[in-house]
Design goal:
globular, alpha+beta, four-stranded antiparallel beta sheet
Length: about 120
């Protein structure tokens, strides 16, 4: 991410870097099961008015409604319910990545299986 063209504002470089890192780590941890033999594919397109990244993992995918350990799966009336779920499941603290990525990227699109994500950041 540090190599993004210098003509981009620092704020854009930081937000794109954060979203890219979060989605890549999700693909490695959840889709690839932290197995170094399983590969995550990354594609990148820089156009005059946008950045587009595609991250595809080797996992079977997921369903948002089954992500009780993540903030995106929380009911609106219980915005941090996933914290207790993570604790009960013995997972490290976290679970805010997809929610924050949605807020920082202009578009966050998943394929049907949801083992591939495209995120877009518009530059205008």
């Amino acid at each position: 991410m540090e190599r993004l063209r210098a003509d981009l504002p620092q704020e854009v470089r930081e937000s794109v870097g954060w979203v890219f890192r979060e989605l890549l780590l999700n693909a490695i941890e959840w889709g690839g099961q932290l197995d170094p033999r399983r590969k995550v594919r990354i594609s990148y397109l820089r156009a005059r008015r946008m950045l587009l990244y595609r991250i595809a993992d080797p996992g079977k995918g997921f369903r948002f409604e089954e992500l009780r350990h993540a903030a995106v799966g929380n009911p609106k009336e219980e915005p941090i319910e996933h914290v207790e779920v993570r604790k009960d499941q013995g997972l490290r603290p976290g679970g805010f990545g997809i929610l924050l990525s949605r807020a920082m990227a202009d578009e966050l699109l998943y394929n049907e299986a949801q083992n591939e994500v495209v995120f877009v950041k518009y530059l205008d």
